Fold this protein.
Amino acid sequence: MKRILVFMTLLVGAFTLSACETNEEPNPDTTKDTPSELLELTIEELAMYDGKDGMDAYITVNGVVYDVTGVAAWNGGTHNGGMAGTDVSELINSAPHGDGVLDDLDIVGSIID
């Protein structure tokens, strides 16, 4: 009888633990724009990320730094008169598509003085 009680206690404990576990994948909509550590770059430091010679391609719009590395439209570090490594706020804000295109980009940091 004692063995049955021990077995039942262990069984109930195992079911309780398994009910607490989750196998859910992280929601990409909530983690996409929040890397573990956001960069703080000056506009001069941003210039290093021009998408040339193997460097990543970053742009800033209204003080937010976005990663355009691997975005076909930014291949080679340029797009419709804009250059990676620079502030393209005016270009984006005056473009027919507006700033909605930024929604699909990863935020990697912000511009500091």
